[in-house]
Amino acid sequence: MEVNHTVYIGGKPTMNYVLAVATQFKDGTPTVMIKARGRSISKAVDVALIVQDRFVENTKVQGIGIVTEELTDEGGQPTKVSSIEIIIGKV
Amino acid sequence: MEVNHTVYIGGKPTMNYVLAVATQFKDGTPTVMIKARGRSISKAVDVALIVQDRFVENTKVQGIGIVTEELTDEGGQPTKVSSIEIIIGKV
After folding, report:
1. Full set of structural domains in chain A with CATH
2. Is some CB atom of chain B closer than 8 A to the CB atom of A88?
3. pLDDT digits (tens, 9 = 90+) for A59-75
4. I want to staple B89 with a disulfide (CB 3.0 to 4.6 A). Which of A8, A53, B31, B47 is the partner?
5. Distance separating alpha carbons of residues A37 and A10, to the nearest angstrom
6. What is the pTM for the complete model shown?
7. Between B42, B66, B68, which is nearest A64 by CB?
8. Residue B4: what pLDDT?
9. CA distances (Å), B38 to each of A40, A84, B80, in order?
10. Which residues of A touch B68 (CB under 8 A)?
């Protein structure tokens, strides 16, 4: 599946990311990937559902994947963090 | 897909829910549904990935669904909340 743009979810308000996704669709991008790690995962789900249900007509969540990522923390120690990828596209 | 048991994710520590899921598999349940709403969604993803990657051999996330649920809040007002369902099963 071709994915044209990725929006990374972080500490900003949910609606900032909803607008970032909506702007992509407005510019003609057919598919947007929403990515988040750790506690931002809940916000990523909110963003995807607000876009699909209320913000951009004729969009639908097309796929969701979750994986454990291995990172190195600030102290140089290896650590594991959950991550999510949500693909949303025009139908 | 037959789902034999559901674990609802709430405010307890992550490992409590990992153990709840692991206990189901130990008792012979072939498929467990993990459900969460709102901010608990991140924890649900953690639970599913810890079970799959580290805690119960030969299990795999088989499906993930997200929907907006409409609820009535404490003040009697309608409110919307994101929810997730993760199906994890023996492979």
Report:
1. 5-90 (3.30.110.20)
2. no
3. 999 999 999 999 898 89
4. B31
5. 8
6. 0.92
7. B66
8. 78
9. 11, 15, 10
10. 49, 53
Measured over the CA atoms of residue A74, residue B12, residue B3 and residue B22, the dihedral's sign is positive
Q: Where are the alpha helices (DSSP H) in B1-91?
A: 14-26, 41-50
Mean pLDDT, to the nearest integer, of A36-44? 96
pLDDT band, very low/low/confident/very high, at B73 (cuts 50, 70, 90) = confident
The average pLDDT across A37-52 equals 97
A51: region left, alpha or beta (phi > 0 left; psi from -120 to 50 alpha) = alpha
Residues in chain B: 91
Average pLDDT, chain B: 94
Q: Please measure the distance between the N-terminal and C-terminal CA atoms of chain A and give it in whole angstroms.
A: 14
Identify the sign of the CA torsion A23, A37, A31, A52. negative
Nearest neighbour of B45 by CB, restricted to A53, A61, A66:
A66
